[in-house]
Amino acid sequence: MIITDSYSRIFKTLRVSLTNTCNLACTYCVNENADYKQVSKFENQILKTENLLEIIIKLHKILQFKTIRLTGGEPTLYKNIVPLIQQLSSLDVKIKLTTNGFLLKNLIDKLNINELDSINVSLDAMDEDIFFRISKRRSLYKILEGIEAAKSKNIHVKLNAVILKNINSSQILPLLEYSFSKNISIRFLELMKMGHIKDGNFDNFFSQKDILKVIKSKYEFKKILREDAATANYWQTKSGNTFGIIANESEPFCADCNRLRLDSSGNIFGCLSSNTPLDISQIYENDYLLEEKLNLAMAQKQVLKFTGSNLSMLEIGG
Ligand code: SAM
Fold first, then answer.
1. Which residues pair with 280 in a beta bridge?
2. Å from CA of 288 to ligand 1 middle
3. CB 32 within 8 A of CB 136
4. What does the pLDDT average to over 249-268?
5. How far does the centroid of ligand 1 lie from the alpha carbon of residue 51, in Å?
6. 13-316: what fold?
7. Which end of the chain has fewer CB atoms at under 10 Å, N or C?
8. pTM for this structure?
9. Within its chain, how far is the Cα of 208 from the centroid?
10. What is the average pLDDT across 148-153?
């Protein structure tokens, strides 16, 4: 079965959202002014882990992923994450995790080396008050502990930091210095128009150009070639340290996007811009029907740029 489109795009990365709940409440994900509790629009029938695993294995059999990334919401809140990772690690594919790091140390203690290929930890500030302003939790030390725990097991760690003007833009250099000192690669993310910020206030947007200007005040650097289907642009400093920027707004990377998303109810999405879930939970064993849904998911992909989403990353899976 070959799923592709007129731009020759294929699915090579599967992002699995294990839950739509999170133990942080970052301002860009959760609307702190809303008078309702954010609830999932789709994940009302959470699959048993064995069914979720069956779906992942089936998709992998057809699409031969290079990477399966576990994300959410906060994936470390998923009760069966340890057995799930154990089972997935037997597949011939890189298993990666994206986490806020709050519960990472607990998880690392339970995993065997080699089960996870790499971990992306989201860390928006090195200053406790600024971290609190964004995440509404005083948990910076726990995240740094989680990073150390992963490194002590030789798991490859990368950092992701969403940069918001006048909120944590002062943290670009401290985050960079921390990552250089720990020999960890860091990517700065431009804010994306998702969920409650889609049509609202985007005043905090801090562009790739703005980020580079801040870094230039301290470091000299040169651009490195972007790999196919990579989400980030990368630069290298004179002393050999690298950093990346995911410039979703200023330099969209839809043209060679290879990502497919699956949530824990068995809905697939071909694009972050799409609000239409394609439910495969009841049909994944039927190749004909599955092919149809995968083609629909491929057709959801944008050609030029991300056009915004009514769903926050929390809901569709980061
Ligand atoms: N809870 C995990 C975490 O914090 O890494 C995984 C899910 S989280 C939604 C994945 C990533 O999406 C995080 O790095 C987060 O900062 C980023 N993110 C969420 N909403 C965003 C937005 N509107 N624009 C840019 N990045 C966003």
1. none
2. 34
3. yes
4. 94
5. 26
6. TIM Barrel (3.20.20)
7. N
8. 0.95
9. 18
10. 95
